[in-house]
Amino acid sequence: IKHLRSAADLDAETATLILDTAGEMAALSGREVKKLPALRGRTVVNLFYEDSTRTRISFEAAAKRLSADVINFSAKGSSVSKGESLKDTALTLQAMGADAVVIRHSASGAPHRLAGWVDGSVVNAGDGTHEHPTQALLDAYTMRSRLGRLDGLKVSIVGDVLHSRVARSNVLLLTTLGAQVTVVGPPTLIPLDVAAALSEKTQVSYDLDSVLPDSDVVMMLRVQTERMQDSYFPSAREYSRRYGLDVPRLKRLPEHAIVMHPGPMNRGMEIAPEVADSPRSTIVEQVANGVSVRMAVLYLLLGGK
Ligand code: CP
Question: Is-catalytic flag, 34?
């Protein structure tokens, strides 16, 4: 494939190749190989129109470990504030010879538009409420390395499904790889049209306590208050009581089950601090795995040597 705009771009074979390649990248890093020459002479542009900590830094680290030249562009402080369009920004990057453009944008579909304007590969680093495919890949990698398989794994994705690009990409990728996914949350955050669309691939539940004992993985989602109207979200305390993962709920999980969160977290709202910091939590591991997975994505898209 040339671009990674959606988890739907990946069939099972390609997704597995990315996860296996990420494993090789991680093994090399573990053997103290700090830098590989695979993308020497290639240029990766990180084009971030929305804030990010993990994704931006890990794409930068991934490209640098593969010896690519990296240009970091953030909309703040650029000519975007003078009204320059995404297309004109893209053409400027194209003129500077970008081999890959990693884009985060508040508009769903921005990576698809960008791919029509630049010659290089486009990687979606999160577009609006639409998708975040490399997050899904690093999540799948983490599940596979902790639990040994994805096929048949029971994964519950919990919380603000309506606004979650992480949930959408995970549903697509995990079901492609054979996992059984259940999305869980309040009816206001999984409204009927969203539930109907998701029900083609997943189970939908509004009762967290009933799904916990049968989950191998519980993935908590950030409550995205910045994207909400009041009607979606009556009160933080009520939300936490019904859908927050606290210590009593952690005890309802099978012993082998893991707890995930893509970050950034609202500690005390969707996840209790004791749960986030518990040995069952893979939250820090997910961040570390993100570098290996993004190395694999850049390496495979750019045909690294
Ligand atoms: N998980 C994730 O996308 O985090 P950032 O917003 O910090 O990149």
Answer: no
